Amino acid sequence: MWLAPYASHPDKSKGRKRPETPDSTRNCFQRDRDRIVHSTAFRRLVYKTQVFLNHEGDLFRTRLTHSLEVAQLGRSIARSLGLNEDLVEAIALAHDLGHTPFGHAGQDTLNECMAAHGGFEHNLQSLRVIDALEERYPAYDGLNLTFEAREGVLKHCSRRNAELLEAQEPGGIGRRFLEGTQPSLEAQLCNLADEIAYNAHDIDDGVRSGLVTLEQFESVPLFVHFRDETLREYPDVRGRRLLFDSIRRMLSQQVYDVIDATRGAIAEHMPVNADQARRCPPLVRFSPGMREGSTQLKRFLFKELYRHPQVNETTLRAKQVISELFAAYVTQPREMQAGFAERDDLHRAVADYIAGMTDRFALREHERLTGQRLF
Predict the structure, then answer these.
(1) Which of the pair, 60 or 102, is modelled with greater confidence?
(2) 367: which of 26, 104, 179, 332 lies 20 to 30 Å off by Cα?
(3) Buried b (16+ CB within 10 A) or exposed e, 41-66
């Protein structure tokens, strides 16, 4: 695999918190990816949802299918840019490991429950999963991933938490949030691939659900452009085939746009290695026109799908499940698994326990503890 000078080279990795003997057949980023795929948290993603809850249909995206789509998009772009595909894949597959059940509704509710106890950030929770909560190895907690994989997983971080991370790990992954520098180009790429995948599959899931119609997308120039492109080539196509082909064309053009815009940014700033790329402005990017089109699409989805009355109703019930589970476990810690019930930091233990749940396990636990069936 050819790597550009500004890519993350495995032989120049900043290493693991606990040094390990190199593997004879896999580089360090390949080992990261394999550890993530075999983790318990990764398997749980199949029953954690995005917009639509698990019981609402088998064909809607889950955190697992979303992560696979981000990895596929990321690897395609990385190959053209000479970035490290293995690192991109590892970051993409791990980036949602800390997400709660019920999508953003669960995350927001846990943050409210934890307001007096340090709050809850799903990106920081993903880091907690890979650094501490996974229990697979005799010698240490977590997965002991490389600095580069951990850096990519921590997409966002409040200044307060960045300062705490810096105190625990001087010069580590919290430093860039304090200095205003960037993560690796592979991490930047995963951030953008995440956005591209989100927009595309939420169009598909939104129409499939019946909450939005193809006709409503007349107000979204980016989608209309590719829909009309499909109709010019296939005038008689309708329904699902029209939707799928329009999304396919939009995805392809966004990939090409990122490749071209990023090549231009790299040529302008000319980073000679991965560390110098971190000190540049964000280099993995859309062109200005595509950025505007993507932003308009996100605004449309926010208004017409994420704030749809039916989604709002489901969100309220999901928030009730999370808040009542939190209260129940704080009052009765022994209702949690023993490893969590015995911890000294009770509120963080409860947040960790709930965040690790799948949608359906959270619903079963809520019904067991409260006698209510909300869905």
Answers:
(1) 102
(2) 104
(3) bbebbebbbbbbbbebeeebbbbbbb
